[in-house]
Amino acid sequence: MKKLTPWDVAYVFDVTIACWLSYTVAAWILLTFVNRSDDLLGGMWSVVATIFVFRETRASSLLAGLNRLIATAVSFALCFAYLMFLPSTPLAIAILIGVGTVVMMLIDRRSDIALTGITTAVVLVVAAISPENGWQQPLLRSIDTVIGVAVGISCKWIGSYVFYRTIGEPVR
Question: How far apart are CA 145 and CA 65, in angstroms?
């Protein structure tokens, strides 16, 4: 069995703090204007975004953050436009995932098709659970994503810097 390096231990500590901070910030922000279930969902969605952008190097974390924001923006636009006029249904989920796939192909972001589809599915399923405020879900999940990306990248950069200054190894 492989032993953990000091960098591995620092990475674990850093991602743990980043996830806690991401959840706490998102839940605190949402608490002021949404119900408890949206507050919890927002914290969870923010943590998902944090985990997604938390990569081995700072450069790959930045790229993952950009990818996450683009995929979320496409999903947001499609879901918001749809939910302003119609309720979420299983057919709507399938159609909007298909439309999102086409959009991602057209903007040459094929590697982010799955991310756009997952985001669309989550937003529309949550909108189906709470149809009276379904149109709010794209906006709320976008806020959660921005918080998660910002916290994840910030913690990655700060953690790498502190590790370098403390241990003296190259910043990743």
Answer: 9
Q: CA–CA separation, 145 vs 158, rounded Å?
A: 20
- Contacts made by residues 105-111, CB under 8 angstroms, sequence distance 24+: 107/70, 107/74, 109/67, 109/70, 109/71, 111/67
Axis-axis angle for helices 90-106, 58-83 (nearest 10)? 130
Ranges of residues in the chain with a pLDDT under 50 are none
Cα–Cα distance list, 172 to 7, 8, 57 (Å): 10, 12, 4
Break the chain into its structural domains and give their ranges.
6-167
CA atoms 77, 80, 81, 87: torsion sign: positive
pTM of the model: 0.91
